[in-house]
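Minimal example, chain plus pyridoxal-5'-phosphate.
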Amino acid sequence: MKRYDFGAGRPDPASFPVQGLVEAAIHAIPKIGGDFVLYPGDKGHLGLREVMAARESKREGVGVSPDDIALMTGSMQAVTLMAEAFVEKPGDVVITEELTYSGTIGAYKKLGVELVGIPLDEDGMRPDLLEETVRRLISEGRKPKFIYTLATYQNPTGSVMPLDRRKEILRIANHYDVILVEDNCYGDVRFEGEHVPAFYTLDGGENVLYICSLSKVLAPGVRLGYLLAKPPMMRRALDRRYDGGNSVLAACIVGEYFRESMWDHIGKICRIIQEKRDTLFHSLEKHLGDIATWSHPVGGLFLWLKLPETTDMDRLQKLAGEKGVVYARGKGFHVYGEDVKCIRLAFGYPGLDEIREGVEVLAQCVRGAQA
Ligand SMILES: Cc1ncc(COP(=O)(O)O)c(C=O)c1O
């Protein structure tokens, strides 16, 4: 059976720079040689930290020191570490957007966190509702341990929070003395629009811990991400790290390759993914334009498709499964598990023909799933 894979947030497979990394490995591995027998320590390989500090400095226009970066085994390790470091007991509260990354929801719930979701609009988390909620939680003696937010190319909705709103969210976090954890793992997958500064940049890193990844600009298989934070908070986070650090082998190869070619590579993958996004837009217009609406992401890997309220989501999943269409169901991203009539389509991985055909097949399934 043919498969149309809009499931996970992955970049384009053909863009993976096999030859570039082979050559980088030939140069990078001998440089370390026998020192591979050493444990990397909790911040990891300096070479890749320097390259990632340069990445952040260039995008954000501020100086970032490699000393403030700790490499992680994917950004997911940093996401998990936040709860391990800042949540003290089961039932402690963490605030997120009401719709947020399913991996974070799953990990935090398993760690005993009580998630409180703040509704979003097309500009992301609503600050008025955030303030109301923080105030209420404090009055109940349940001050949130942190606010976890996806402000740029939000997963799953694709929204970008404008500057004014970021400042307002930061004001609230600072006023009520609640840490902000910013997950910016899609930050460089940009097609259109002005860059909006990260919370970390706006705050100077005083009250913000920043998470980023190489999964979305290179590949999830390299398992490299990082945490960027100022010393007191970095120390608190790393106190909970027990894994001896992440792979120096992976870090030195990627560091060697990206030292010269990171922005060329990122530019290339953004052009490829933008073409896929445009193809997805056209296909949706053609096959679902009369009954569905969707977000218009200017970056990231996801489109949020709003289906008619009459859609039977279980039936849709069954029909799509039978036809080989893979997508992520909306309720997996809802902190309270509400069965929203939405699905997330990830457009980085499938080819252009797969997108065209896949949307046509998906549209038949959606029509077949109307009550
Ligand atoms: C918002 C967000 N954070 C973190 C991750 C984890 O990514 P990784 O551990 O591969 O860096 C993902 C993956 O999809 C994500 O969407």
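The pocket of pyridoxal-5'-phosphate is lined by residues 9, 74-76, 79, 101, 103, 150, 155, 183, 185, 213, 215, 220, 225 (CB under 6 Å). The radius of gyration is 21 Å.
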